[in-house]
Structures are given as C-alpha cells and as structure tokens.
C-alpha cells in the first residue's frame, strides 16, 4: 500500500482538482485589481478626473474605492451608476461593509433613482407615463429639465462635496447639467469612469471636461482566454497582463432550436457544478431575450438549481440568475452561459458587454432557429 501511494502521488500532484484551478486564477485577478488601485491613488490630487477603460479593467470597483475614501474623510459623496440592479447590489454591500460613520457620508444611486428622490423630497407627484415612447422622453428630457429648472432650488439639502459617476458613457448630455449642479462648489470634486465600447443605450459622447484623463489598459477581471474572446469584435484598447491567468477557452455550441439550447445549457451547467463546484450565486445565464421569451420560458430549475431574475436572491445563493445583456451590464459572474440566436445575433457592442462579464468560465450556445 505504501509503495502504491508513493507511485501514485507524483501523478496526482500534477493533476490538481479543477475547482482549485479557478481559486488560483481568482487570487491572481484580485492581486491585479489591487495594483490598479495603487495607480489610481497616485491621481487622487486631481479634483476632476476621468478614468477611461475597457471591460474588465476594474472601473466600478476603483470608482467605489474612490467614493469610499472620500466618505471616510467625512466628505459627503454621491456614487452614481446607470444600472439599477448594480446600484441595489452596491448599496447592500456598502451597508454590510462600511461603518455607520462612513456610510452616512456616502449615497449610492442611479440617475433615475436620484430623480425619484428629488421629486419625493420636493413633494411633487412622480408618475412616469406607461406609453414606451412617452416614457423614454420623460426620462431623457422631462425629468432632467424639471430637476434643473425647479427641483434643485427646492431641495437645497441634497448637495454633495464629491460625485463619482460609473458607466458614464450611458449618461445623456442633459443629465450632466443636473449632476454638475449637485456639487456644492463650482468645479467641485468629480470622478468619471467610462468605456465608450460599452455604450449600448445611446451614441452620445458627452463626458464633461476634467483636469486629467487616465487610461486603464490592463484587464483584471477575466482570464486571458475570455478577455481575448470578448474583444475579438471590438477595437478595445485593453491588454491582459502577463500575470493574468490563461484560464479555459470559451465554449461555443450550435443547436437547431430552443429545446436543444436549453438541454445544452442544462448539461453544461451540470458539468460546471460538478467539476468546478460552481454555486448558484457564481453562475448567470444571459440572453438578448427576457426569461418568458427565451428557451427557459416556463422552466423553474436548471441542473437542480432554481432560476431567478432577482439579483438579491441570486447574490444570496437562492438561484441561478437569468438576465438580459443590458440588465447585467456592470455586473460579473464566475461562470456565464450566453444564449444567442443566429437570425438575430447580438451587436458587436452587446457581445462585448455580455461576454466580458464572465471571469473564469464562458459558454456561448447559439440556435439557428429564429
């Protein structure tokens, strides 16, 4: 028996468990994110700073670090993002991790959420139209103009000493007039984080002028294989550091129809669950269609795990998240299955945004069915 163990040990030592490979990759990526923060600290003397970077360069976390540092100094700070689900998750994370003294100086919100707050404080009825076209105009024009003309004077208490904006490429020009007016000082502290390649809502390029612009060019979210795959259709100026782990090649699967797409997704997630110990809160299924119009319509479980569209339930580990590309923007997961359709393929920008959310495991399952 002893001789048997001695003969087998060298072999087993060269074949680590697959889930341990993912753990080692994650440790390397966390180290790279910390290095990005050190670089940003060197630019903290600039009161107005723009940080430009592609997907996976750590913009959201760096922006959050900047906002938290302001708050720790007792500076009333607003962190704004575009994605509602991202805003909810960041708020919960700040509630859990910050002291009450720091938390009282930091407000995390979306621009739309901030608008609602202004209307509420000013005691003005807030009722967005139901018609899609009127609703779009309401958010794009009516609300920003109303806030700039009336609400800012009626709610003077809601002002900040520093403002940090994430996903800034999605903020319209009219919104910036309001955001700048939220600063207690003219040309007050402003940090903007953006990536023009992720601009999937509007073609406007309206980033305000700042004292300095810093380019983040090192990917620190994804393994090298996933990063190279996600940027292949985009002219994104982002490279992987030599220290970024290579990781596993993304999987591409072609199927004939929706039932086959669901079956392949189920089979893949089962294998990830077994081989890499992927828990529900580390796994997301992304589609250009909502759940009820996807191959998972009427299906409540995948690989023995519940399916949820609720970000909070997902973060708690109560289900595998099903989300659209746009709704998952700004978020990330260790493992992602992307569901696409050849007759209506995602745009290059959508593909870049969706695939770059995956950190370690990525699969694209395409159906030829319309």
Automatic annotation (TrEMBL):
GO molecular function: 3'-5' DNA helicase activity; ATP binding; DNA binding
GO biological process, one term: recombinational repair
Signal peptide per UniProt: none
Domain of life: Bacteria
Gene Ontology CC, one term: cytosol
Membrane spanning residue stretches: none
InterPro entries: DNA_helicase_UvrD/REP, P-loop_NTPase
UniProt-recorded name of the protein: Uncharacterized protein
